[in-house]
Write a structure and sequence with these properties.
- This is D-amino-acid oxidase.
- The protein has a single domain, classed as FAD/NAD(P)-binding domain (3-Layer(bba) Sandwich).
- It has eight helices and 14 strands.
- Strands 1, 2, 3, 4, 5, 6, 7, 8, 9, 10, 11, 12, 13 and 14 form a 14-stranded mixed β-sheet that branches.
- Strand 10 and strand 11 form a beta hairpin.
- It is globular, with a radius of gyration of 19 Å.
Length: about 325
């Protein structure tokens, strides 16, 4: 068993790295995070983000998302500085479909009457789900990590082999960077783009349901989707899923398509000035990798490959990593 002030080095300061670091520091470990760029420049910063277990594959998807749902709803009640809000909202489909099992058990679940659906949608349902303001949330996670004694430094980690052994335990939370850092050829980048506008008074989320159960892959999903996520004075509009594309340059064509689709849900959106764009890379791997291995005789624990469900899996995966580390 690992001793109570065991030193842990985490590579990566996205939502996986910060959540894992906070849990380990709060468990009494000496946690250092090294990251190539600040958290607010990570791919996690660009996430929407709404709790949704789709688009990640692993046998533990359900327990991971259950833990995360409970944690996020608790933060919404008890941590006003976390940027988490539980909202009522609608998920709807363009073809007839039944609600996935994971939403039928959520608070507030009910089926929509056809007259309640936006144009172009034929079935839908409502429920309560956590919606996360990622810039605020990442700041919260950093404060929580530091309050427990953890530290964050900016620095380059060239490869897993190069950093294994720098601490008794190294945790790999490199997200899309794992493709080269590990290296892991099973990691596929999927680019996503969001548009930020002023919120005209929308208080409920809307998300297009793209079909399939938790664990479906991005290969099964459309490249375009429609969602509106209210975050206080701002409204986040989405989205896109471009397999194999890893640049973070603004794409005006994609942005225009997002605005047009969202304006069909609420016509006010068509007239709103664009305040900004967020572009991130989803690190897709089948399955998500949360496991221990020895690299050159040194302890390494992996936590990456969450695809578009990084926030939705974050607390469950971090808890499993904590348990792995405590068992070493």
């Amino acid at each position: 068993m690992t001793s109570v002030r065991a030193e842990v080095l985490i590579i990566g300061a996205g939502v996986a790295g910060l959540t894992t670091g906070a849990l380990l520091a709060e468990a009494g470990m000496d946690v250092r995070i090294r990251t190539a760029a600040p958290a607010l420049e990570s791919t996690s910063y660009a996430a929407g983000a709404i709790w949704d277990p789709l688009y990640a594959s692993h046998e533990r998807i359900r327990p991971w998302t259950d833990v995360t749902y409970r944690t996020l709803t608790s933060l919404a009640r008890n941590a006003p500085d976390a940027g988490v809000h539980v909202l009522d909202g609608m998920e709807a489909t363009r073809v007839p479909a039944t609600p996935p099992t994971h939403v039928t058990t959520l608070p507030g679940f009910r089926r929509c009457d056809p007259d309640d659906l936006p144009p172009g949608f034929v079935t839908g349902w409502r429920y309560h789900a956590p919606v996360v303001d990622m810039p605020v949330y990442l700041e919260y996670l950093q404060h929580r990590l530091k309050a427990a004694g953890g530290t964050i430094s900016i620095g380059h980690a060239p490869s897993l082999a190069a950093v294994a052994g720098e601490a008794p335990i190294v945790i790999n939370c490199t997200g899309p960077g794992a493709a080269e850092f590990v290296p892991d050829s099973r990691v596929t980048p999927i680019r996503g783009q969001l548009v930020i506008v002023e919120n005209p008074g929308i208080e409920e989320f809307f998300a297009e349901h793209l079909g399939g159960p938790p664990g479906m892959t991005h290969d099964d999903a459309p490249r375009e989707m429609t969602y509106l996520l209210p975050q206080g004075p701002l409204l986040v509009l989405g989205g896109s899923a471009e397999i194999g594309r890893a640049d973070v340059d603004e794409d005006a064509r994609i942005a225009a398509g997002i605005i047009a689709r969202c304006a069909r849900i609420d016509p006010r959106i068509a007239e709103l000035p664009v305040l900004g764009h967020r572009i991130g890379i989803r690190p897709v791997r089948d399955p998500v990798r949360v496991e221990h291995e020895l690299v050159g005789g040194h302890h390494v624990v992996h936590n990456y490959g969450h695809g578009g469900a990084g926030v939705s899996l974050s607390w469950g995966c971090a808890a499993d990593v904590r348990d792995l580390v405590l068992g070493l």
